[in-house]
Amino acid sequence: MFQIDKTLISEEIIENDFVCNLTACKGACCVDGEAGAPLEENETEILTAIFEKVKPYLRPEGIKEIEDQGTFVKGEDGDWETPLVNNSECAYTIFSDGVAKCGLEAAYNDGVTDWKKPISCHLYPVRTRDYTEFTAVNYHKWEICDPACSLGNELQVPIYKFVKEALIRKFGEAWYAELEKVAHEYTARP
Length: 190
Prior knowledge:
With 190 residues, the protein is α+β, with helices and mostly antiparallel strands. The chain has ten helices and ten strands. The strands form four sheets. Strands 1-2-10-9 form a four-stranded mixed beta sheet, with helices on one face. The protein has a two-stranded antiparallel sheet with strand order 3-4. A two-stranded antiparallel sheet has the order 5-6. A hairpin with a 3-residue loop joins strand 5 and strand 6. Helix 9 (164-171) packs across helix 10 (173-188).
């Protein structure tokens, strides 16, 4: 672990490679799992505010679950998350050519909203957890992402570079510049 400002970062985001490989995994992270996408407090307000704009991008079953459960729900762990369809896929999931994608991101890409998607999704496979004195920044290894690890290794793209845009969105440009400096020093060690 190393520290930048009030974050403690796992070396694993420097040591491991990752590039999403949707042709192999088919977007399984949007479909598999036991809970919806983790949400930060302010993201619950954003989801409520943009729902009507995003609604045309969503599947009927996703819309139904959002209208029944709400634009966000409280998970079993007490944290906010996106609602699920059939206790499986995220209600904001859409499918294109058999690949699960994000309806929120589709609306963003079309310029309908100015919010891309939950930061937890944008950061993946990096997960953050806030504590009283610091935020932990860790690598979340999930076997469904093994093809992404293989592709990342083949292309030699470390996790922190793959999620650069999301890390900057979460922590800022200066923080990311410091992370790059630390990563360079870390990988240059004998």
